[in-house]
Amino acid sequence: MEDKENGLSYKGIKIAIVAGTPGAGKTSVLIHTIRSLINLGFNPAVVKIDCLYTDDDIRYKKLGIPILVGLSKDMCPDHFAIYNLEEMVEWANNQSQNIDILIVETAGLCHRCAPYTKNTLGICVIDATSGPNTPKKVGPFLTGADIVAITKGDIISQPEREIFRERVLEMNPKCRIYDVNGLSGQGCEEIAKEITKTKSIMHEELEFEELRHSAPLCICTLCIGERRVSKKYHRGVLRRIDGFTKYLGE
């Protein structure tokens, strides 16, 4: 596709969106995965989404690949990633390295967001040492993923690994699970091969791309800056401690 007005040329690109719990080792896993993609003859680029600060771009630059950093600041990082997906693809298409794979690493902090879209590959990176009930707590970035990469399994017992794996499958029975190691790179070649099987998306198709799961329903006065805690100051979608939910005002 050509955009004659802006002198740009777009092509199809494979997109993998990677989310996971903080400290699970997303960047370390991706560095090994990207090395495998390069060895397979692909030209990947990375967009790193975080909230306030990151220096992970330094690690990615050592791979000799294009890296773009986006800081969401006071916006949810996953919402920020979704809102800017078209711009990320445009950026990747305009790199000189003929980029054919775009990897978006997003912070995924609130355990309720679902950054995956229908025609991208959704990868969840989750830490096995975080406890056997963690898969039940993290929400759509696990339940909506195509691939679940379990890290740090080498420092827990075999029964604990099996329980954790079963909990993941309880929450997402259709996912493909890989045990990976962000230090040694074990399992990352398999993740790379999964990325290469992803269909390419044309730039014009992004206009019609959709999320797999709705984003959190709640927007309230706290979201837009209210600092007083009394209920009388709050509007929007509100949920009480007993679970009762109401919508109040605009």
Morphology call: globular
Q: What is the first-to-last residue Cα distance? A: 42 Å
**CATH fold group of the largest domain:** Rossmann fold
Strand coverage percent: 15-25%
Largest sheet: 7 strands, parallel
Number of folding domains?
Answer: 2
Q: How many β strands by DSSP?
A: 11
Assembly category: single chain
Low-confidence stretches: 1-9
Q: What average pLDDT do the residues reach?
A: 89
Name of the CATH homologous superfamily of the largest domain: P-loop containing nucleotide triphosphate hydrolases
CATH architectural name of the largest domain? 3-Layer(aba) Sandwich
Strand order of the largest sheet: 5-4-6-3-7-8-9
Task: Describe the protein in words.
- The protein is α/β, with parallel strands linked by helices.
- The protein has two domains: 2-208, Rossmann fold, CATH 3.40.50.300; 217-250, no CATH class.
- It has eight helices and eleven strands.
- It has a seven-stranded parallel beta sheet, with helices on both faces. It has a two-stranded antiparallel ribbon with strand order 1-2.
- A hairpin with a 5-residue loop joins strand 10 and strand 11.
- Helix 1 crosses helix 8.
- The longest helix is centred in the N-terminal third of the chain and has 14 residues, at 26-39.
- The N and C termini lie far apart (42 Å).
